[in-house]
Amino acid sequence: MLFLDSIGIDFLSLIHDYPPVVSASLSDIKSTVEFVTSMGFTAVEFRRIVGMCPEVLASRVADIVPVLTFLIREARVNGLELKRVINRRPRLLACSVKDQLRPTLYFLQSIGISEVNRYTNLLSCSVEEKLIPRIEYLEKIGFSHRDALSMFRRFPQLFCYSIKDNFEPKFDYFVVEMGRDLKDLKEFPHYFSFSLENRIKPRHQICVEKGVCFPLPILLKTNEAQFRDRLEEEKVIWETNQTTSIRPVLLYPPSFNVSHSRKYVLLMMEM
């Protein structure tokens, strides 16, 4: 207890978050602390690691070394990037190479994600409990197995999002309020990475008011200034079109209602 206090770790909070740590021997804890800090982690970084994954303190050096070896040799993590990888996902240090890390690596590679070293945070995820259910969800809402996998290859971070708190509400809004086609999501799965309340809804509603429909990347990826500029460009195009005969433009129908409409349409407007 005194040793943990000396390195700035609250023992009472620690046992509250991870009771099994009390069974770890003091010598093992000291060895683990010394080993991890010898990798270049500052005291602040180490406390953060323990705060995010208290299991690290109950891990022996003999358990941690195989993890580091796996990350470098099998996951192809550059040795200079190892510290950043651990800081980003401390739980990796407490994972079993045989039961967790290696099976997940093989699964990710099997679906076509070759550069797993760019997505090492996924290695601590369970294939059966987290990865497969998200693939099955995309299939459930209408994507073919092939298309679902292509979305995860294009944007592997999809595996990190909650089905209930992210996928479901955002997909519902995408279909019911935005009236978009699944093809849009297939081409831009990053849609799920944007805040529904702070980005998706506000921008969609502005587009409805202005009578325009942008591709998802323009709608969501652009910063506020760029988005406003695109709206202004559409306004100029609209005004210019007053003197032209026929021009295809993406517009919402005149009867479009923000709260009740379901589909946008492509109209050939005759000026």
UniProtKB/TrEMBL annotation:
For molecular function, the Gene Ontology terms on record are: nucleic acid binding
Which Pfam family, any one of them, does this sequence belong to?
A: mTERF
Q: Which domain of life is it from?
A: Eukaryota
Task: Provide this UniProt record's keywords sorted from A to Z.
Answer: Transcription, Transcription regulation, Transcription termination, Transit peptide
Which BP terms from GO are recorded?
Answer: DNA-templated transcription termination
Listed InterPro entries: MTERF, MTERF_sf
Q: Which family does it belong to?
A: Belongs to the mTERF family.
Q: What is this protein called?
A: Transcription termination factor MTEF1, chloroplastic-like
Phylogenetic lineage: Eukaryota, Viridiplantae, Streptophyta, Embryophyta, Tracheophyta
